[in-house]
What does this fold into?
Amino acid sequence: MNLKSKIRNKLYLIKTNFINFIVLRILKKPFLKSIPFSILFLNFIFKFIFRLNANSKFLVHFTSKIQGSENIILPNKNFDSILRSFASSGGCYYAIFSGSTLKIGENTIWSTNVCIQTGNHDLLNRNKLHINSVEIGNNCWIGSGAVILAGVILGDNVTVGANSTVTKSFPSNCVIGGSPARLIKYINVN
It folds into this structure.
């Protein structure tokens, strides 16, 4: 077989696998219909061809990086918005260290360039890690460029302002923002 035939066969396999992948995913997961085809295609190429974020059980935006996806806990129902955010919110960084988890509640969404980390090094001894889980409640909205650090627990219906650095936990039904994040106001959710 010459080089041209090998390339043609490889492209055919890629195209066939991609079409099967997209058709099966869309039939099983209708929320994928809301993601532009070009984004799905690029996510597929980067995950299955270039092996970027290959260990993730779900699609992750091709410009995002996820470490420790096996330590992410999703709700049993109403998690389509979460998977949509993973697949369509670009430039995000998720570092979920072993020994910790990232728990995300139902109907939670986030924007681009969000960073969530469950570990940080010691100020004096950089070889020592401080690892602590992160919990994000139900119906939360995390704005673009927000950073959520280890040990944070966000209650239900929390809105995190853009470019905020969340270093401590906050109760349900509030808007937070700033660096470091502070309570801006409580919201009435009925």
Remarks:
- The domain at 3-186 is CATH 2.160.10.10 (UDP N-Acetylglucosamine Acyltransferase; domain 1).
- The mean pLDDT is 88.
- The longest strand covers residues 182-186.
- The chain has one domain: 3-186.
